[in-house]
Amino acid sequence: MTRPGARGNLWLGLAALALASMPLWAAPWHMQLASTAAIAAMFALSLQLLAGGAGLISLAHAGFFGLGAYSVYLLGGGRSIFLTLPAAALLAGLAAAATGYLALRTRGFYFLMTTLAFGQMLFFLFHDTPLGGGADGVFIARPDMIWTVPKAARPVVFLLLNLTILTAMYLFLWKLMGSLFGHALSGIRANEDRMRAMGHDVAGLKLTAFVLAGALAGVAGHMAAVTDAFVSPELLGWHHAAEALLMILLGGIGHLHGPILGAFALTAIREVGQSITERQRLVEGLAILAAVLLLRRGIAGLRR
Amino acid sequence: MEGFLAQLLNGLQYGLLLFLIGSGLTLIFGVMGVINLAHGSLFMIGAYLAYVVATLTGEFWLAPPAAVLGGLAFGALLERGLFRKFREREHLDQVLLTFALILLFEEARAALLDNQFHAVAVPPSLDFSIPVTGGFAYSAYRLAVLAICLAVAAVMFAFVERTRIGASIRAAAENPEMVDLLGLDARSIHTLVFAAGTALAMLAGALAAPLQSVYPGMGDGFLILSFIVVVIGGLGSIAGAFWAALLVGSIDTLGKVYAPQIAGISVCVLMAAVLLWRPNGLFARG
Amino acid sequence: MTLEARGLSRRFGGLLAVADVSLRLRPGVPHAVIGPNGAGKSTLINLLGGAIRADSGAILLNGADVTAAPDWRRARAGIGRSFQRANLFPDLSVLENARLAAQASLPGWRLTALAKEESGTWDQAWAALDRTGLTGFAAHPAAAISHGQRRLLEIAAVLAALPSVLLFDEPLAGLGPEETAPVVALLRDLAATHALLLVEHDMDAVFAIAAEVTVMVDGGVLETGTPEAIRTSAAVRDAYLGHRA
Fold first, then answer.
1. For residue C24, what are the domain limits?
2. Contacts of A among chains (3+ CB pairs under 8 A)
């Protein structure tokens, strides 16, 4: 996985500024759409640390996203966002630690299947028990955000908040992938056995990445809950995890910023698809086929 | 006590259906090195096939053979047309391509039929109860499903353990390069294994149709459980899949009756325990 | 800086791959293990490096028992090993390969230690390339250098982690005569400061480097002695030639 250079980051920054200027020229409905895309981008970006970073294809990731979202509900209404956001990251990170401890004992197909099963366990936890307010989802009270946001200003405030957190997450991962930790992850993706033989603590490195990615997914889930004021068990389901993988592949698994491009592209494809046909699964299925069969290096790899 | 006995039989029968699905999955993983997330959709297709056949002809018993024959043909077609090409792909590509198949199968089902729940009647010939012990009688159809699944399992074991082709399937599940060493046509073996796996999943769907409603996305739950069966049993092991399926089927069924809220979780806890104890599955070779 | 093996044994199914092998490695006394194919030489290196566990016997590093330690812990403790198959990281440059190896020697993998950018690992990597004569190829991708250079990179990656014990598995395999001489000189140099174990088929190189030679046949030690003693041993000649025929 390569990191964008100074020029690439400049373009990404300009794109972020263009999105941040939406309140000046776009309709509230479009700003909501951009918020949705930004949250999807956070989710896919957090998974990219595992997929593109360490070569780990996890299907449990939606479980951590969902836990982050449900933490707002579990803490009860009226809490400060400065409490709910770290709590979401902590809860998701703890779940990722437990899941990773077990699932990372396996490799390859086994890892895929065990993460799928553990992800579904989290799904069942919220789908089958009254813990999360039921199988159909539940409306939640948004956390307190310093001052009360009037209803009309919500699309603007949430858009700017989501863009800010997405930018922070991207910069954090950009820095991380350039560190020794990032180099070690790349080595694990390329040749795990060799890394271990050289003396790298592969198990510890993978678990650290798994927990970190889980906590970041929790942040993304938290922002989804705050933005939508609604959570449902589907957020934890493996189909949601597969969607994040699709965004990564669509945008380019070989590039750190790929998932961001993929998330915005898939959100746009869905939106356009919705206006053409009611068959959403057909649109998504075809998008996957296009991404896998035609765009093998993703949108970010188009320029080469 | 009778209630528990009935649930235990239900669990075994559910486990045997899981075995039909899981054994195909584990062989396809082992022999071809392909992960097929759409395997649960094949189960759904089998169930809908039973619904359509039973509705059109009025004779449910045409459905299981139709599922097997249709499954063999459909599986061979899928392997030749798609999965053969997926083998070379990375895991992520395989995950997404087979995820796309799930979406497209669901969409095709919605386009050809509808999004409703449907009931398939238990065939009248077996719509009665057989007394098992003094005061306890058990559904004849469920007993028939038990018997059919056991017969299929016996045929599978005999085929894999006793025949030359079976020996090469076992060899390939252990070590994919072995097939070439044995001088057998690896491509035909792949087609055979995938077609058989598809037929087994569709047969399981057809047999399950009268036991539960036929509905969109019904393959998803079975997919997760059969993955757990494969993980617990050990990749590529049919005997492992068999015992793991019975274990998972019983725990899930008893759990749904006696502790409905933790049923979905209990099976995963079982898997976690196996991963801690024997990360390669209970029946892994070597 | 000693590595000692006491009565190591390892069985694969019905085959006793390594049977009751004892040896002691220390700086200044380079130790070579020779024997026909299938004698258990690579298994012995795998046992010492920790890639596989011994069924019985003990391995002591500077007197401390490391028999139960996994391979990566042994590598961190100073046991460096090379592989027959030169399979480092083909997409990374020669220098980055060495640097990734050097990074393994840093204390702890934890985020706080690793969040820093590269730090001193570059120096270790450059020193290792310098030692193996690869500095001129530092920027080349590992996939793009010659076979002989890849063998050297294999050695450089081991050296970059600053090990005290060196386990080399056929470092000369596939090298031409002109390529062999500098590697032999390098190994002789390294043996002065490192405990060195060399598994090698090139007998001229073995006798040029080693101060002690162990002959393995069918997993067991046939004879251990000075190169001169081994060269003139009738038992060794019989066993060796018998197996070759």
1. 1-78+163-245
2. B, C
